[in-house]
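Handoff note, outgoing to incoming analyst
You'll be picking up this chain. Sequence as last confirmed:
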Amino acid sequence: MKLKLLTHLPDKPQSFYDFARSTLGLQEEEVFKLLFISLKIKALSDLPIYKFIERTIPHIKFDEIQKREYLLTLSVYTLREIFLEHFDLKFCKNLYVLLRNKLPKPLLKHCEPKREVIVSQDLFIEYLTKENLANLPSFLKVKHLIFHFHTEGSCEELIKLIPNLNLFVVKASSNNHYELYYPCSISEFLYYSNIWRKRGIFSEEEIEGILLQLKSLLPECF
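Most recent structure output, in case you need it:
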């Protein structure tokens, strides 16, 4: 198997969606698992945030960065689940109103509310670009900046890798080979790479090569 860091994926949601669909040949739901968004949230009271957090939504990255100010990073796949399962929350209503005009329409297809959405005035949500994320402190960047990785191998080889991953996409290639796309933050990659070393999934040279690439992109995080 080969471990590869994908550095050519577009940053903007529409461009990412178009590239993943046309160039990578992925289905819509597969794109949902690879496309991530980050948000800064300011709240005048703690209650809407507590109501959201107590739902124990999986695969989100959530940090309090100041008093009643938070940073949230999640995949579109998880975002859709939030809208489908938790739209009763004030936070989710505000989030939907913000993102319905910022994300490509297919990303929120079938998530539209059945009635008019009334937003809460005690929550302020800001959509963060890659440039915004690049200005975060290093301890937040290693968690909230998402990179994408690619591995190609046989079914038997990929089965060794998949159990450690939270979100991933498998695409049939040729001659019983498959392509695996998976998102990771720097902190996740460091965690996974220790497991991969112990289990001999990837060679030390491959892992060190990826680390050198990440260090060249974000030296302040190492």
